[in-house]
Amino acid sequence: MRWLLFLLICSIGVVDLSAQSSKRLKDLEKKRLTLQKEIQESENTLKSTRKDVTGALNNLATLNGQIDARKRYIRIMTDDLESINQEIGDLEKQLGDLEVELGDKKRKYEASVQYLRKNKTIEEKLLFIFSAQDLNQTYRRLRYVNEYATYQRLQGQEILTKQTQVNQKKEELHATRASKERLLREREHEQQKLLTQEKAQRQLASGLQKRQKEIEAELKKKRRQASQLNNQIDKLIAEEIERSRKRAAAEARKRATASTTSTTPKATPMSEFVMSDEDRQLSGSFATNRGKLPIPVTGAYTIVSRYGQNTVDGLRNVKLENKGIDIQTQPGAQARAVFDGEVSAVFQYQGTGMYNILLRHGNYISIYCNLSAASVKKGDKVKTRQSLGTIFSDKQDNNRTVLHFQLRKEKALMNPEPWLRR
Fold first, then answer.
1. Are strands 387-391 and 400-409 parallel, antiparallel or unpaired?
2. Which of 179, 208, 225, 279 is the most exposed place for a label (fewest CB within 10 A)?
3. Closest listed residue to residue 322, CA positions, set 301, 304, 295
4. 117-153, pLDDT tens digit by residue?
5. What would the DSSP string read from start to end of 337-368?
6. φ, ψ for residue 64 (rounded to 5)?
């Protein structure tokens, strides 16, 4: 029974290791396929019908975003290849150990067979048993003969089990090496695509360099529009802070009136949100989800403009200032909440017809701009991934669909990218 239990434990261990290895490879492949699909879908957004500087700049931004995504994809494949190489090393070691164990068991089994050949007749076994000096020795010899027969049978079963394990490990090693070969070919293919995109980027940038004055005029227009939008956002956040302060002061007065003590409530600085217990809990939950928030758009996407001051790849002396990030996606895509919260503002500005939404998560605020329609209103409670509205698609620019997304803690700007799960 002990031998059978040992065999069962060994077989379970090997099956468990094989299952873990298979799951890890499937997870790596699933991750690569997901990113590959996003890259392929995002490439369909490049063709622009506009021939002016705006269309060319948009094309360049899209192309730069796709190049960044492809470089990230190649980096992921390189990391996966390192994992696969490590997996192959582990499998080869496991296979070597199994083959050593198999060889050892075969030698022991061979020795036991040879022994039985020398003592194979029933007469020899009976002579061995009944030549004992006393009854106790007779019993021990009888038990020995029975146990040795059982041992030999178990040895044969162990060899069969170990041979099965060796064969399974060889198949697993072969499958892992085949995955490595496929991934190497895929990485080479992606590197060729990257070279093609970088060539197109240089050609597009070269054409734009000759239109420097038009570029400067277009960028000046974009900066003015961005400044007006951000001023409106700042104003709405300041109003939200003031409302919170007044609400907290009113609640403090009520408590002071109801209290038997004469404690004067402490004034709260206007530069901070005054939060309820619910707000504090929500804010705390938001902070702990850094790096885990969902992308604020549905479907495939490309980040075409990053947070902060950026140079435009391929263009000299061209700098852009971005208070958030710009995410290009497919026509019909929805803006979605990155976390549970309350809609603190839905507004339009300058008659553009574009909707912009401020969503409060305690003292954190997520901002969604450039929507053609809003599906929420001020005061609504929303859940993570809930649709907030449809992102605007520019029909004059091949239905280019871009969400401008910001993240703030009170009034302080934050880079959204480290907060999002990609």
1. unpaired
2. 225
3. 304
4. 665 544 455 555 556 666 676 666 667 666 666 666 6
5. -SSSEEEEEEE--TT---EEEEEEETTEEEEE
6. -60, -40
pTM over cut 0.85: no
The pair of structure tokens assigned to 306 is 């990053």
* Contact criterion met (CB below 8 Å) for 334 and 209: no
Q: For residue 69, which of 37, 28, 43, 39 has the smallest C-alpha distance? A: 39
Q: What is the distance, to the nearest Å, from the Cα of residue 142 to the centroid of all Cα atoms in its chain?
A: 65
Diameter of the chain by CA atoms? 115
At residue 148, φ and ψ (nearest 5 deg) are -70, -35
- The amino acid occupying position 334 is Q
Q: 293 has which bridge partners?
A: 420
Q: Residue 150: exposed, middle, or buried by beta-carbon count in 10 A (0-12, 13-18, 19+)?
A: exposed
Asked whether residue 3 carries a pLDDT value surpassing 60, the answer given is: no
Length in residues, the chain: 422
Secondary structure of 268-324 in HEC code, one letter for each residue: CCCCCCCCCHHHHHHHHHHHHCCCCECCCECCCEEEEECCEEEECCCCCCCEEEECC
Q: Which two tokens stand for residue 266?
A: 């402490």
- Amino acid identity of residue 323, one-letter, is K
DSSP helix/strand/coil, 399: coil
Distance CA 240, CA 273 (A): 8
* CA–CA separation, 334 and 321 (whole Å): 25
Report the distance separating Cα 33 and Cα 182, nearest Å. 13
Question: Are residues 414 and 408 in contact, defined by beta-carbon separation less than 8 angstroms?
Answer: yes
Ramachandran area for residue 317 (φ above 0: left; ψ -120 to 50: alpha; else beta): left
Dump pLDDT digits (tens) for 319-349: 778 999 999 999 999 999 999 999 999 998 7
Question: Is the backbone of residue 249 left (phi > 0), alpha (psi -120 to 50) or beta?
Answer: alpha
**In angstroms, rounded to a whole number, what is the distance separating the alpha carbons of residues 75 and 183?**
12
CB 388 within 8 A of CB 359: yes
Q: pLDDT grade, residue 19 (50/70/90)?
A: low
Mean pLDDT for the chain? 79
Mean pLDDT of 365-376: 95
Residue 387, H or E segment:
strand 387-391
